[in-house]
Design goal:
There is one protein chain. With 414 residues, the chain is α/β, with parallel strands linked by helices. It has ten helices and 18 strands. Strands 1, 2, 8, 9, 10, 11, 17 and 18 form an eight-stranded mixed beta sheet that branches. Strands 5-6-4-13-14-15-12-16 form an eight-stranded mixed beta sheet, sandwiched between helices. Strands 3-7 form a two-stranded antiparallel ribbon. Helix 2 (42-55) packs parallel to helix 6 (183-196), helix 2 packs across helix 9 and helix 3 packs across helix 9. The radius of gyration is 21 Å and the shape is globular.
Amino acid sequence: MRKYSAFAVAREAFRHHKGWERAWTSPEPKASYDAIIVGAGGHGLASAYYLGKNFGITNVAVIEKGWLGGGNTGRNTTIIRSNYLQDPSAAIYEKARSLYETLSQDLNYNIMFSPRGVIMLAQTHHEVRGYIRTAHANALQGVDTRFIDKHEVKKLVPIMNIEGPRYPVLGGLWQPRGGTARHDAVAWGYARACSDMGMDIIQQTEVTGVRRECGAVAGVETTRGFIGCKKLGIVVAGHSGVVAEMAGFRLPLESVPLQALVSEPIKPCMDVVVMANTVHGYLSQSDKGEMVIGGGTDSHNNYTQRGSFHHVEETVRALVETFPMLSRLKMLRQWGGIVDVTGDRSPILSKTPVEGVFINCGWGTGGFKAIPGSGWGFAELMAKGHSPLTAEFGMERFKEGRFIDESVAAGVAH
């Protein structure tokens, strides 16, 4: 595959841009593969990429029911951070954050990574204590974070009202190397690299069943026929429980929509990411000038990808108090993404009761930031049967009471 470069852009300009190749191929599926990944979102594509890059396993198919990156990868608010309290969480998220820093060069594709910094606001005394605790834990984990006072917060975000009547800002947990990336570009970059290694990305193909023989996986039934495989990775986010049931086991999670919206574009006014966990709202400004706003999850289980008006009201009402300028903006669009949430708000990266079947799910509202680290660890798990990054995230922890509790420890699961 032709390398992207400034010289290539100049050359194609003289050719009226008629010489560009397709970024990835759309082949007919083969009869069998060494490994199949179900789900062509960020996590699935990253898993396939690191299977090839780190372990030389390239006879791989990535099967997608819809279109590449059309699920949660294209429906999130692109926040990247690693300041989690629990050691296993901090390790995999920091691995992801560090991989994001060089991902554009690694993939030869601009993912528009912006290490602009992330502030998690402390708006109660309980949050102040919690974030100071997290800052100490992060120091031991090698994660660069620190607690800052409200005056430093105001200096970083001049448009913020830190003296709000209900939710005054008391300080914040600041991670200067956190930030954002372009979600579509992450999926496209991984897809292009996978295709370049000879992997097949098969879109518009639904998996309808998982065939087992003698307790081990034999392949998957799809709308385009049976496809055999030796190893199967299930990476389908909110539909994890559905595909797991096809394979004959259940998962301890539930699926709910996570709400988000963006405003009309305005001039640059904010160059960091702000998370207000007390009111469950978070805010950043995109490269196009839109204010990207995230809210909470719906209170009931469902699979709709529509926006929820009561969440817009709750989230915007609280954020307007902290960012008064938002009150004058028009909402441009709104959506929901289906997330799968475990009881301890930590993911599952695990072997399953079916030999050769592996599961990567339960990222809840924190999936995008983890994509490279998740793919790195899950690929190692599939290739070698064990990975230090994923060792604590096995399914068996729920039977053993060995929870990785991030629902309270991190203040918020995002």
